[in-house]
Amino acid sequence: MNFRSLEDFWAFYMNQHSKASTRRWHFAGTLFSILFFFCSLLFSWWFLLLVPFSGYGCAFYSHLFVERNFPETLRHPFWSLMCDFKMFGFMLTGNMDREIKRLGKRPVLQVF
């Protein structure tokens, strides 16, 4: 698929993250990546090795076992990373449900 803008990709990205559990796994991975990045600045550069493993590990797990789709970061690495931080921001501020409604998508209800 070819996307003309980040906004076009964002709508597709959110469709690939329809389950709340998938978004939570991404949030956790992004949060750990940020924490490990700051630990590398404050303590030791070795923490940098944990940045991609924590972020991508949580994301890939959620796509393979929760959402059951293919991680788009392999096809569109830059836009996926940008949208991951955008989703992280919406979740951090409590605006994710509003954004899902704006895009015209219904969140998939889950027990977990």
UniProtKB/TrEMBL annotation:
Membrane recorded as keyword: yes
Domain of life: Eukaryota
The name this protein goes by in its record: DUF962 domain-containing protein
Organism placement in taxonomy: Eukaryota, Viridiplantae, Streptophyta, Embryophyta, Tracheophyta
InterPro entries (UniProt xref): Mpo1-like
Record keywords, A-Z: Membrane, Transmembrane, Transmembrane helix
Any Pfam family the entry gives: Mpo1-like
Membrane-spanning segments: 25-47
